[in-house]
Write a structure and sequence with these properties.
Helix content is about 30%, strand content about 30%. The chain is an alpha/beta fold. Strands 6-9-10-3-11-12 form a six-stranded mixed β-sheet, with helices on both faces. The termini are far apart.
């Protein structure tokens, strides 16, 4: 077997925690090999070991049939490996060509030969069908174009095996399909691709071979043709999980949240929301779709009182809320699950009980005559730990002792039980394992069934497909259009996410 990469017995420990345990991974030359698993399964740790960013405690690495110690990325690059990280590492103020050759500049007479770099960039982009303008500054480019540049950076270093870590996290569906066609062309040219993902549809669409990790171990390596999506989930989680569209009763509740001609500025004082109008009825889930960075965060912040509006109106049960502080908005019935759980969701140094108490520290039964009844608080937190399957020893555990996914469950548990009848939920399953996502979706549908109005912001189209009654698509701070959740057209949504009106195919 002609192997591009052969890992044998790879073990990596961080203190008492074992991230990788005796992993064997053989990647054939000229294939797309997907590595899939839940968050914390050990995927990225394993690839960081292969690329020399981490050193294994046990095991061997062979590249191109040669066993070696890969103790730095320079060694990996020298052996024809390249890695495109989940978070791009570009310099916005530099041009495309300058970014591609950063650290390995082409020089002439001691000076950077920018003409040569631009010509080399054009040649690479044409050869690999990754069209870019070498002279354009990165600051003005889309995330899809930024990813092309990251891939070209790897190719400029003569990589023959490319590692892609969650490459579609910030792409529209159309950009993802373009990427998959590019990856297939790499393989046709004899290159090898290692593709890390937790999106099952993508793995089924693009891979030749799939390795599944669970709890730091390999549970299966199979040809993609021998797997179904259902079997992949079972291998990842250890049980069946359903992500079908959730059944629901029809509702026609009153408008609970209404936004009209809303304008908001971002931290740079640029328009982040531009004439946004929407409404959410009691017993309805309205989804907000879009590539991250198109105004979704600012929308959540202004509705929760964390950012001022420049113009427009927002009403909760008919009452204006734009001039109110966050506590007053919560008192009027809005519960908020923030997109950044670590910054605005929890106090990591405080206990789970103290985090649950936020916003209800003056209410009975948790407070009596101004004094906190910690017995009642701990009892409620124990109930929430069981209901939301929070993996903790008890209510007195500090939040920092939990994984990111379990901290997310703490935030959801607090907000879903806070008594609000309007839920503003931003990225509910970010960083949450696939098995736990099913439980969170169940809770969201439970809130809908109880008559709450829900504004659900998510970058995951499959999540919106499963949950939303209506989906609004945002691009560049605007609502591009709306689709029925039951008849979601992914191509139409993808066009709108890229700023194109599918009705007339004109760019916004």
């Amino acid at each position: 077997m002609d192997l591009a990469v052969d890992l044998s017995g790879i073990t990596k420990r961080f203190g008492a925690f074992t991230a990788n345990s005796g992993i064997d991974l053989a990647v054939r030359r000229g294939e797309i090999h997907a590595i899939i698993g839940e968050n914390g399964a050990g995927k990225t740790t394993l690839m960081n070991i292969l690329f020399g960013l981490l050193q294994p405690d046990e095991g061997t690495i062979a590249i191109g049939g040669k066993t070696m110690i890969v103790d730095s990325p320079a060694v990996a690059i020298g052996q024809g490996l390249g890695m495109v990280h989940q978070h791009f590492k570009l310099v916005p103020s530099l041009t495309v060509a300058d970014n591609i050759f950063l650290g390995m500049e082409i020089r002439r007479n001691g000076l950077i030969d920018r003409a040569a770099q631009e010509e080399r960039t054009r040649s690479l982009s044409e050869k690999f069908r990754l069209r870019v303008d070498p002279r354009e500054r990165v600051a003005g480019l889309s995330v899809g174009m930024e990813q092309r540049i990251e891939i070209l950076k790897v190719l400029a270093r003569n990589a023959r095996t490319i590692i892609l870590d969650e490459p579609t996290a910030v792409l529209t569906p159309q950009e993802s399909r373009d990427l998959f066609r590019t990856l297939r062309s790499f393989v046709d040219d004899g290159m090898t691709v290692i593709f890390i993902s937790h999106h099952l549809e993508e793995v089924m669409a693009v891979s030749d071979t799939v390795t599944v990790l669970r709890d730091g171990r390999v549970v299966a390596t199979k040809p993609k043709s021998a797997l179904s999506k259902r079997e992949l989930v079972r291998l990842m989680v250890g049980r069946d999980v359903s992500f079908d569209r959730r059944p629901r009763a029809q509702t026609n509740g009153k408008v609970a949240l209404e936004v009209e001609d809303l304008w908001v500025r971002d931290d740079r004082q640029l328009a982040a929301l531009k004439s946004v109008s929407l409404s959410v009825r009691a017993g309805e889930i309205v989804g907000i779709a879009g590539v991250a960075g198109n105004g979704q965060t600012e929308l959540a912040e202004v509705l929760s009182g964390l950012r001022p509006a420049s113009h427009g109106r927002a009403r909760l049960h008919g009452q204006d809320i734009l001039e109110l502080p966050p506590a007053a908005i919560r008192a009027r019935g809005l519960a908020h699950v923030p997109g950044d759980r670590m910054v605005r969701g929890v106090d990591r140094t405080a206990s789970l009980s103290a985090n649950m108490l936020i916003g209800r520290h003056r209410r009975a039964p948790f407070a009596r005559a101004g004094v906190i009844d910690w017995s009642a608080v701990h009892g409620e937190m124990r109930t929430l730990i069981r209901r939301f399957d929070i993996r903790a020893r008890g209510p007195k555990d500090p939040a920092r002792s939990l994984s990111g996914g379990n901290i997310q469950k703490v935030v959801l548990a607090r907000e879903f039980t806070a008594g609000g009848d309007v839920l503003l939920i931003d990225q509910p399953t970010r960083g949450v394992d696939i098995g736990a996502q099913e439980g969170i979706h169940d809770e969201i549908m439970r809130q809908r069934a109880e008559g709450r109005a829900i504004l659900l912001i998510s970058t995951q189209l499959d999540e919106l497909r499963a949950l939303a009654d209506r989906i609004l698509v945002m691009f560049d701070g605007r609502i591009m259009g709306a689709v029925d959740g039951a008849a979601m057209d992914e191509d139409a949504i993808g066009l709108m996410m890229a700023g194109v009106d599918p009705a007339n195919m004109t760019e916004a």
